[in-house]
Amino acid sequence: MKQFILLGSLAFLTACNYSTKGNWSESDREKAAKALEKFNVHVEEFGEEVKLNYVDCFVGKLENKYENFEEAQKDEFGMQMASSDCLKYVVRSIYKKSFSKK
Fold first, then answer.
1. pLDDT tops 90 at residue 59
2. 62, 56 contact by CB (below 8 A)
3. What is the dihedral of CA 29, 64, 38, 35, to 10 degrees?
4. What does the alpha-carbon distance between residue 82 and residue 15 come to, in Å, rounded to a whole number?
5. CA dist list (Å): 96 to 3, 32, 43, 92
6. 3-state class of 23 per DSSP?
7. CB–CB of 35/73 below 8 Å?
8. Cα 100 to Cα 102: distance, rounded to the nearest angstrom
9. 23, 35, 56, 80: most buried, per Cβ within 10 A?
10. Beta bridge partner(s), residue 20
11. What predicted TM-score, i.e. pTM, was given to this entire model?
12. pLDDT band at 19; cut points 50, 70, 90
C-alpha cells in the first residue's frame, strides 16, 4: 500500500511540470510568452486586451504544434510564423471592432 501511495505521489508531482502537445506546463507557457519579446512586436500600444489576445494566440499555436517549449525553440521559423499569424489575427480583430462601432 505504501508503495502505491509513493508511486501515485511521484506521478502527480512529475505531471505538474510536464508538457505534451496541446497541454503544456505553466512553466513552458510562460517561457513561450516571454519569447515574444525577441520578435519586437509592440501590440501593447493597442491596449492590454489586444496584448493578451496576441500572447494567448501565440502560446496556443506553439502548444498545439510542439511537445514543449524546448521543441518549439528549435524551430525559429515556426515561431516567427506563429507570431506573424497572431499579429494578423489581432489586427483583424481591431479592424472589425473599429467598424462595428459605427
1. yes
2. no
3. 10
4. 27
5. 58, 27, 16, 6
6. strand
7. yes
8. 6
9. 35
10. 23
11. 0.76
12. confident
